[in-house]
Amino acid sequence: MSDFKMKIDTIPAETEPEKAVKEVKDENKVIKSEEKPPRSPEMSFVVGDYCLVKRPADNNWHPAEIIQKRTNIDDNSIEYYVHYSGFNRRLDEWVSDVRVDVFKTSIPEEKSEEKSDNEGPERKLTRNQKRKHDEINHVQKTYAEMDPTTAALEKEHEAITKVKYVDKIQIGKYEIDAWYFSPFPDDYGKQNKLWICEYCLKYMKYEHTFCDHMTKCTFRQPPGKEIYRKGTISVYEVDGKDHKIYCQNLCLTAKLFLDHKTLYFDVEPFVFNILTEVDRDGAHLVGYFSKEKESPDGNNLACILTLPPYQRKGYGKFLIAFSYELSKLEAAVGSPEKPLSDLGKLSYRSYWSWVLLDILRNLRGAFSIKDLSTMTSITQEDIISTLQSLNMIKYWKGQHVICVTPKLVEEHVKSAQYRKPVLTVDTSCLRWAPTKKVKKIKH
């Protein structure tokens, strides 16, 4: 991290925003969330400055770094692109200058770890508890916590994707805040807002162009073949080679909500499974997962996304379950491509836990990790890591041994964290068969 130009001390926000306060130690002054700090009328900041920024989400002042600066062409005002210290990059945003201020105080030299409201300053977390806490609260690893190769790649990735210009998109009836940078070409990537057709995924710079397009667009569902339909839920299989533009547009849109996605334009080696909600107007995009046609690493999923308006409704786990049902039909085991997003990790861990617990509560007699892998198409490595998180596996005499009691299984099953998914895949509604691979004849 670069040298700090000023230092600021803060205390964590309270659960209720209206009770939150900020304390400035060297001035011995408490600043309530609704108050505005003293500010010089001529104050200006440059890239690299550290300051206080008021977040609308909690109405509190947070230490942040100025990443970029621009002039708003509508009212000629100054705007800053800021990263809030200790927060996920998805919360980086453009803010008006009136939301930016500074104190003659100090930022700690090292970021303190995020604490949940019920954690006292003396509480120690085990490694397993810390991992779960960081996953749930989206706490990013510091560079010091990464191995040197990962840290170098992460720094390079952060430099390339540092500034997010597209702040919002309009897709269907939803206006959605973007989370991350996406490399839309030409001037499209510098627009504050893009309008996207939810059927063909064409992106546009202007609302009038979008409205005109919607009267002419002949798409009312994704291209490709419908391979699943139950009630209002439908899944289409789209080959990246056959529908290149659609899949490229899908990837560019998805990147707005995925930090580490690198596939944008080379879509031909992939198949995309598009999840939709169907009504009389058409099939509305909910999410998707992509999969390599030939994966040398045995991955059954390359990328997965549920659009923000449809999150927390069970669609993410449905897509995960769908990928494993396809693996079962292929008589193969598979695992998602790494790295997963923080939300992806949570969804996969929850899905694996539920699948394994559902089997273990009814399974009797001797069985192995390999048996569980064959039954579920989940790799042995993913099964081991999941059972370890459930305290159901031990390392004994050079091998992993499953240690399960009916009581332990029932305790996990009854907890809210491992409840049955809201949506499950009805295999009787699945219309799909693996592509037959043609063996090449050697001459």
Describe the strand arrangement of the main beta sheet, using strand numbers.
6-5-4-3-7
Per CATH, the architecture of the domain at 49-104 is: Roll
What letter string, H or E per element, gives the SSE order?
EEEEEEEHHEEEEHEEHEEEEHEHHHEEH
Arithmetic mean pLDDT: 80
Helix content: 10-25%
Radius of gyration over all CA atoms, rounded: 25 Å
Distance between the termini: 58 Å
**Beta-strand share of residues:** 15-25%
**CATH third-tier fold name of the domain at 49-104:** SH3 type barrels
Question: Which CATH class of the domain at 49-104 applies here?
Answer: Mainly Beta
Q: Structural class, judged by helices and strands?
A: alpha+beta
How would a textbook summarize the main sheet? 5 strands, antiparallel
Shape verdict = globular
How many β-strand runs?
20
Can you tell me the residue ranges where pLDDT is under 50 for at least 5 consecutive residues?
Answer: 1-34, 104-125, 129-140, 438-443
- The total of helices stands at 9
